[in-house]
Amino acid sequence: MASAASSAFTAFTSSTDYCSRRAKRAIQIGTLQVRTVRNHTTFLKTTINAHAPTTTSSCPSSSVIKSAMATESSAKIIDGKSVAKEIREEIAAEILRMKESIGIVPGLAVVLVGDRKDSATYVRNKKKSCEAVGINSYEVRLPEDSSEQEVLKYISDFNDDPSVHGILVQLPLPSHMNEQNVLNAVCIEKDVDGFHPLNIGRLAMRDREPLFVPCTPKGCIELLHRYGVDIKGKRAAVIGRSNIVGMPAALLLQREDATVSIIHSRTKNPEEITREADIVISAVGQPNMVRGSWIKHGSVVIDVGINPVEDAKNPRGYRLVGDVCYEEASKIASAITPVPGGVGPMTIAMLLSNTLISAKRVNNFK
Length: 366
Ligand code: NDP
Hints:
By secondary structure, this protein is α/β, with parallel strands linked by helices.
């Protein structure tokens, strides 16, 4: 990695950033306001009939569902912040065990091109997360007018560097670069974002295993697992079919033997399809689009959306809401993720997890 040595090495990034890109750049994932962290086991016992988070939006109730919503919020809150903390502690313990056993520490590298403030913020936040669990983080920062060849050279150096187990390219790249060329240059063994076509292809195929699963959808499934939600044989609706969230989330649910419907912008009857689902994962980017009337009684709702909406009362002038109208859905679902504090913290935790998986695999450490 000789050519990288002259650059400032500090931090890295992940797929969390894509959400923020969609969310009009206004969001700082690492500083999302969430509730107090609690022990996960205790939490599971205590969150039934829990309060709604303060940051969700008010959704005007449609007359259709007013009667169904006569009761207070009854859904269990799926607390991504708490679960993510628990996962980070598990990762830190594993990293320590590996270091003490074989002297190897996982390393994650980021390539950051240009001087966008939001990108710099994400990189900084993720660097902190790395440091907290004991992952070495490396960063190469290149000026906006760098050539694609220069970026590819740094990726090649990181591909060859045995101390780097994961590589992330901070998106968006400047418009003169071909994003696909750059992402495809990351070797599949270090593709901790899981976006390489080979990893996605393996995810889609029966009896094949991807080396890495994309972080946000992996975080959604992990939340379902940790909250004991049965997936096998259930009906699931995934709203959104993007390469980074919706599509891999649907593939993951299918791999777990759910029967999956995928809803997108051309779907004719999204409410009806969603209403049949026992599990709903929404990754659309439209604030409060999924109303209470879309939700089946007792279903589990995972809201990936992170959308800024104007809020004059908030010092920032905006607040974050999900795709799902929390106020309505939480009265009908049996469990639901809040926004913020649901899927968001899981994405970074899964990135750390993928980096650890990579380091273990290459060193054959069980
Ligand atoms: P994309 O814009 O890439 O994809 C949005 C998807 O939603 C598309 O498949 C689109 O359909 C579909 N869609 C758009 N409008 C509608 C509609 N009215 N009805 C049904 N489907 C619709 O977004 P991303 O997948 O990148 O992100 C989705 C959301 O998730 C965003 O709010 C983002 O901020 C958030 N996010 C959160 C993360 C986290 O860590 N919590 C990480 C990543 C994203 P079509 O394909 O037909 O265009």
